[in-house]
Batch of 4 targets.
Target 1
Amino acid sequence: MTIEQTGIGTTETGTAGPADGTSTRVVLDHIAASVPVIASLVDHGEHIAAWADDIAARLVAGRRLLAAGNGGSAAEAQHLTSELTGRFDGDRPAYSAIALHAETSAVTAIGNDYGFEQVFARQVRAHARAGDVVVLLSTSGKSPNLLAAAAAARDVGARSVAMTGALPNPLASAVDDVIAIDGPSANVQEAQLVLVHALCRAMEPALRRGGTR
């Protein structure tokens, strides 16, 4: 049964809702707005595949992936690293991936001693080595701590890539490569989750083969 079929003033389960259906309309409008933003990932299909091939090759060769973001983008970054250290689709060896914002003692210590702008950059300098990849997620592309992390990645010889909102933005100019998605911030984050899953799915064959060497 669709929401429209339940009648104004009730939800699909029959629970009383706003008499004018305002909440329902907001929900449907949000879902409708997300569809074209997510669908725009089709235009980035070859680009996402190239990222998958490159990152998988680095991980199989023993390199490390570092990821970071703020707020909702932090959750997306941690989602990516969990799929690599855990598993995405079927069993395979674990690969080294660290969500920098999840290192709470490091984040608070660095923030306290050096300022919030350095919470990711200092960890990049500590953990990243030449050939590693640093993945930065931001809807605005303006976060100072991510810009500092991109600079730190360049200094240590790690490759930096970003998932951002619409161009132009400072982070897109600071990294080695970017996939920029145009749309409202919340919808961009939703599309970034689909991008993360597409990336992981495309990496899986190489990650499985690499684990058998």
Note: The chain is about 55% helix and 10% strand.
Target 2
Amino acid sequence: MSTWLPEPGAPLPHFVSDAPFDPHSVSAMTKAQERVYRASQLRLMWWKFRRHRLALISALFLMALYAMITIVEFLAPYDLAARHVDFIHAPPQRVHLFDQGRFVGPFVYGRKATLDMETLQHVYADDPAEVQPLRFFCRGDSYRFWGLVKGDLHLFCPATGGQAFLLGTDRLGRDLLSRILYGARISLTIGLLGISISFVLGIVIGGLAGYHGGIVDLAVQRVIEVLQSIPSIPLWLSLAAIMPVTWSPLLIYLGITVILGLLDWTGLARAVRSKLFALREEDYVLAAQLMGAGSRRIIGRHLVPGFLSHLIASATIAVPGMILGETALSFLGLGLRPPITSWGVLLTEARDVSVIAFYPWLLLPMAPVFLVVLAFNFMGDGLRDAADPYK
């Protein structure tokens, strides 16, 4: 079977269309390709982050928590310092919907307290004859919203003359659920403030070391190695012990925040340094230098934005360390102290083994710490993957 061949020297037939190429025509690209072609870097990152279901759920969970701490006075059923001396170390109450087959709505049974004369322990028993429906959007304990505006509106309250200790009470008869909600405001914000300090120090010091190199880089690396060689817990303890006991709770809060920020910048500084070492030889950096741009402008306007997504991912992973640091210091009695309430302060009541054996609900403040740390780590993993949407 013969195959057609052109004559020697004859031009080859042209099978490609010579019509002008239109990159926006449907024939040139599909609708999906056009959508990706026109998308911005931020939109590409969002599309990839959204595919990471666990990271997305974690981000929504953290957004809900940080929105919650803005209205914690409204969400807590009792005031932070409200005491109920007749219900010391009361166990959590169960919420019921049906009473003897009849739908009542959310309610708790009344409680009767007796004193065990052998163990001198309060014993609480539900009274099925006393049904106490929960009230919603009700008037309860008065408070000052963010310490400024006086109010008494709550999301839910116990029945008039009743009690609603859904997570139990502590040794002074204070509602544990309300104290966990108030403690979230301190524990969650201390991580953000601490990472802000660490973020600034890490970018500035790591940026100078990575951009200039030489003696600057050598000095920064030696300082980082010295700080990282010191065990974290003893260093936290020594710095926290320096703070005078006469300081106000606000100053102690700010002091703990500064300590956590000053000790956590080393890892971020090394990440910034390594990135700048790779980027400082790029042509656009040389062009900026030839145009007379200074080091501050080159680092801040040209280099840092090139890996800002990586910095955001690193920051989200570092926030849980801040929260755990505050919890550890407060648990050991060298961090925040009453009347400031944080999750670490609440856990100080669970240091005694006998307390854990008889009143295990005092360990419940560990649950939000555990969930928040996991959520930040999952969200950080998702952001790190989404930082390079072209992979």
Note: The CA atoms of residues 1 and 132 lie 97 Å apart.
Target 3
Amino acid sequence: MRYRTLFAIVGPLVLWAAFFTLFYSVQAVGCRAGWDATLLGGVSFLRLATIVLLVISVIAAGALYIYARSLPDNAGVASLARYSALAGFLSTILVFSGVIWLQLC
């Protein structure tokens, strides 16, 4: 039971850090490989790849938030897990949503 709560507290922020690394890796590889010049339906392949990554990251962060909300409240630890999951979810949306309108390369 303790590991479940620990995962709920630390998991969302570790997931955010992993997605942060993945976003910059995809962007660096895409810029170097010329994905920004390859168009699919009028949109660059790099932008499509980062938007798909954005959707996946929001879904994963949202799933961890829903998981944290289902934890039984034991001495306030579950509320800490909820706040951590909410912080991970909101920061995922705030930080990564720039791939929709910002210049990628």
Note: Residues 18 and 57 are 10 Å apart (CA to CA).
Target 4
Amino acid sequence: MTTHEAASTASTGTASSPGARSDGLRYGALFGPVVFGVTAAGVALPDVASSLDASSTATAWVLTAHALALGVGTALFGRLADTRGVRAALLLGSLALAVGAVVCLVATDLGVLVAGRFVQAAGSGAMAACAMALTASVPPDRRPQVFAGFGATMAIFSAGATLAGGVLTEWVTWRIALVLPALSLLIVPLCLAGAPARKNSGRPMDLPGAALLTLTAMSFLVLIQSSALALGSPLVIATAAVLVLSAAGLTRRIRGSDTSFVPRALVTDRVFLKAAVIGIGVYGGLFAAMYAVPQLLVRDHGWSVLSVGVRLLPGAVVGAVLSRMAGRLTAGDHGNRLLAGVSIAFAAALAGALTGSGVLLILGASLGFSAFSVTQVFTTALMSGHIEPARRGGAMGLLNLTFFVGGGIGSATAGALAKSMPLSTALGVVALFPLIAALVAVAPAGRTGSRSSGHG
């Protein structure tokens, strides 16, 4: 904030509107391209499969690996923002994002593409972590306007993502659609200028704990996909063993160390757990929809990839309006009701996919964008006043790790179920994800107004 803005805030007791809006727009633009890694990539999946001669179930890993790395990157770089400052997290994340994008552009087979997506998503996670840390750190009197600007910008990216994915896939190449998250690099200089050089929480990174968390999440996602990937029994058993051992090691580390990558106080906090379950439900439904809907519309309804992107655009625009509304409602008591309503509608539309209706498929994916934007704004606001500033980056990173792993579980579940039932039926089953999120959104979570000192 400038000296003039600070003086204005002190004299009026409220934030300067232009400054608050500018911050919200800037942080939203840093986070916004992260959305492209899901929605634009989902639209491009049919062309990815045909170009690389891969099965539709195998291409689910384009989204699943992205979700896992995005979650881990968000948690890891969120902790780095606490221990080494936002600038360090942004710079290292930018390097990973750029390297991963280059790998995706030159990949000649699905395995290399998935590896590139993994690295790119880890860097994209840094953009998300820093955007949320900066957004959550604004003074309470400025939060409503900042969150409104953040939500509106996020929704604009959500609204344009499917169209961008369709246009680029149809007229240029699916490779460009898959590296759109790299657009965050254009905003990094603007955020570096206002980011503190160093903010030390006094806690180490705990890289062993981060590795255990990554192994646990990765092995779990592989097991869900084991049938779709046609893994042999020895490999399934080995993966299960890795899951058990890594989960046990992580649990022991959480209980035995106050500096664990996943703090014990955080995983037992009711507000954090409520936000985590909401995000898992909404993201699980969205990732499943972005895996299944484009394939169903292209394969069963004969649509082009471009027409899929165009027809998803109106619903995504509605999501833009709803997310801006969510940014304004978070200061009051109605944000959870908006989130619950959108999530229930999302679940109902996914369940309607059982009919195979193209209209309901479009509606389901569109409502997924709305639920995503509202969830991100609502949960960020929910946690902002609950976590002390020195630990906020790590806590928000871990929260979004659960979101993105939930998204990976959603796409992996849809891919696995598609081996034994029609893809539309699998999508209908995944409707349980956003339904649970809606129920949790309106459930009480205890006190949220006091700041937690032991988290993140």
Note: The CA atoms of residues 144 and 439 lie 25 Å apart.
